Fold this protein.
Amino acid sequence: MAMKRHSASCHCGAVKVELDFDTAAGTSRCNCSICRKSRWWGANVKPEAVRALSGEENTFVYSWGSKSIDLHYCKTCGIRLYGRGDIPQIGGKFFAFNVACLDDVSDEEFAAIPVRLCNGRDNDWMHEPKVTSYL
């Protein structure tokens, strides 16, 4: 696939984004405490790749630890649709989004999206966790 404009929304539709993303660019799943517990399936894009953000007033923000990312959750349905962060080691400012919230991707396209498994729990980002079947 090539770069494509996608729409994404939370479960109830109160929070919506449009973003440019190439599904072939890959995504990630992580075993850190919050990603594991929330079953986050994420991808990052540069902030300028995101447009038409609506419903942000219907989100609450959660941040922890280094406070390098603000996670936005829908106040109505509780889904974490996106986060905004700034981590110099990965290129600075980014917009992380929940791949599972893409509205315009078929089951076949979802199945073909590459997934990188990350060992965030041990802060060992260059290697997969030893056990990955639950991710």
Observations:
- Residues 4-118 form a domain with the Metal Binding Protein, Guanine Nucleotide Exchange Factor; Chain A fold (CATH 2.170.150.70).
- The two ends are 24 Å apart (CA to CA).
